[in-house]
Specification:
The chain starts with about 40 loop residues before the first helix and ends in a 7-residue tail after the last helix. It has 20 helices and 2 strands. The protein has about 525 residues and is an all-alpha fold. The longest helix has about 30 residues. Belongs to the major facilitator superfamily. Bcr/CmlA family.
Length: about 525
């Protein structure tokens, strides 16, 4: 690929002209200044290099000779006042807390041909009209929309035995309802992402969330396992729309370190779903059957629909892709061939693959191999999921301190160390306590890997955030759906689980090397 253009620095410092109402480029006060906006040194009269016209020279108050067209040099008192004014305007911009700051870290066109696009700060109004929600409200809404995967998979886990008995089917077909839902979560993102790049984020999000609620209730009405399998596939595809659009909306609003921090905070919200969903499902089974669990999932879908309706449109019409399927295909090919996306996407998929192996094999290994009770396994599952939440909160701090790249490298190193300790514990000891601590490290590292790998992968995809988000989700859930069943062909044993987790962690470490070679931290 050709090298991308360097980031274009932007300044949000309003200039002062002699008229007091417009800047030197002629724009009104409050608009973005032109490229010749004076700096603090220029306002002090120390670095003006304008050539005076060939008129008779005049003298300013200091007695210095100047041309007729040269600006008058201010006195010392005026210079001091202007210096303090410019410093006070520059300080919030440097600290990253200015509401008028303009972040221009994207390469021109966000990875495609086009103009450099400033990214809006969190306090600005949404592009779709109307003022955006508060940062906390936006965080909760987007975090809730990121829980489609855990809710779809984990809420009815405790109900699988009852579902098998009620529909008079086999355990394999009951497990297939989970696999098809995961395939739907992977496949549904590929058309949903490019479609949201063409028509905007809000309409696909509302349609997908409504479809998720409808298909969840339809699962409760399924008369046979064959019908349930079809509806679960559609249920996963509907949930995929919410996942891909939520990621794209974050990229529309944030870039660089700010995006990494926002994805980390989203993981704090969405990471609580694997903790709450199985516990909620088991409590629901006290008062209802597996059909009631799916009705509850439909009610949760309606709640997510209400949350989605509060979010403004984040992709204005001038930034949307136009054209037919051919243009969409070209945009998809450009994203797939972008190495700045593929390397972090592979790290994300491989880093999360170890967690999917743990989810698929953990109950059999820890209960059957190490003798944990169902209640003890539930507590252990909740503790590991809490590790993801805590690691996500830590990631939000590290992203602003050492940057997403170094945070991602640290996360992968933790995953490899945990996987090595896990396999060693499996081979050298029969105690469950030789397995649980390293397993906690492996699972918790996902809370560091996901937000930073996502932010790095989407950093240069400002004009194709939906398509890029779809590729991310497809890789993540495709590997999660394929690797555990293939590994299980060798038997569901502690050694197979430990070996598979170590293999995926080492593969993630190898995929991290080109990410680190790509350069420093992403532009803000």
């Amino acid at each position: 690929m050709p090298a991308s253009a360097p980031p274009v620095p932007c300044r949000a410092v309003p200039s002062r002209s002699a008229g007091g109402g417009t800047d030197r480029a002629g724009s009104s006060r409050g608009q973005r200044p032109g490229p010749d906006v004076p700096t603090s040194r220029e306002l002090d009269g120390e670095s003006h290099r304008r050539q005076p016209p060939s008129h008779a020279p005049t003298r300013d108050l200091s007695g210095r000779s100047r041309g007729a067209g040269e600006p008058r040099s201010p006195g010392p008192a005026v210079s001091a006042v202007r210096r303090k004014l410019v410093q006070s305007l520059d300080r919030p911009r440097r600290s990253g807390r200015s509401r008028a700051s303009i972040r221009c870290g994207d390469r021109p066109g966000g990875g495609a041909a086009g103009q450099n696009r400033p990214v809006r700060s969190t306090s600005e109004a949404g592009p779709g009209g109307g003022r955006a929600r508060s940062p906390l409200g936006r965080l909760l809404a987007l975090g809730g929309l990121s829980t489609f995967g855990p809710l779809s998979l984990d809420l009815y886990l405790p109900a699988l035995p009852r579902l098998t008995a009620d529909l008079r089917t086999s355990e394999a077909l009951a497990q297939l309802t989970m696999s098809l839902c995961m395939i739907g979560l992977a496949a549904g993102q590929l058309p949903a992402g490019p479609f949201s790049d063409r028509v905007g984020r809000r309409r696909p999000l509302l349609a997908g969330t409504a479809l998720f609620a409808i298909t969840s209730v339809s699962c409760a009405l399924a008369p046979s396992v064959e019908v349930l399998l079809v509806v679960r596939l559609l249920n996963g595809m509907a949930g995929a729309i919410g996942l891909v659009v939520a990621r794209a909306m974050v990229r529309d609003l944030y870039s660089g370190d700010a995006a990494a921090r926002m994805f980390s905070l989203l993981m704090v919200v969405s990471g609580s779903a694997p903790v709450i969903a199985p516990l909620l499902g088991s409590q629901l089974l006290r008062v209802t059957d597996w059909r009631g669990v799916f009705v509850a999932l439909g009610v949760i879908g309606l709640g997510l629909l209400l949350a989605a309706s509060t979010l403004p449109e984040t992709l204005p019409p001038e930034r949307r892709h136009v054209g037919g399927f051919a243009d969409t295909g070209r945009a998809l090919r450009a994203v797939v061939h972008d190495r700045t996306l593929l390397a972090p996407a592979l790290v994300l998929a491989l880093g999360c693959c170890g967690m999917f192996v743990y989810i698929a094999m953990g109950s059999f290994v820890l209960q059957g191999g190490y003798g944990l009770s169902a209640q003890a396994y539930g507590v252990m599952f909740a503790v590991n999921a809490t590790g993801i939440v805590l690691a996500s909160r830590l990631s939000a701090l590290l992203a602003g301190w050492i940057g997403p790249r170094r945070t991602l490298a640290l996360a992968v190193a933790i995953a490899v160390a945990g996987a090595v300790a896990l396999l060693a514990g499996v081979l050298l000891s029969r105690s469950v306590w030789a397995v649980l601590p390293p397993l906690f490290l492996v699972v918790a590292s996902v809370g560091l890997i996901m937000p930073n790998a996502t932010a790095l992968a989407l950093a240069n995809q400002g004009r194709a955030a939906g398509t890029a988000s779809a590729v991310l989700g497809l890789l993540q859930f495709a590997l999660g759906a394929l690797v555990p069943p293939l590994a299980s062909l060798g038997g569901v044993t502690p050694v197979v689980m430990g070996t598979t987790i170590l293999a995926t962690a080492v593969a993630a470490a190898l995929a991290t090397v080109p990410v680190l070679r790509a350069g420093g931290r992403p532009s803000r």
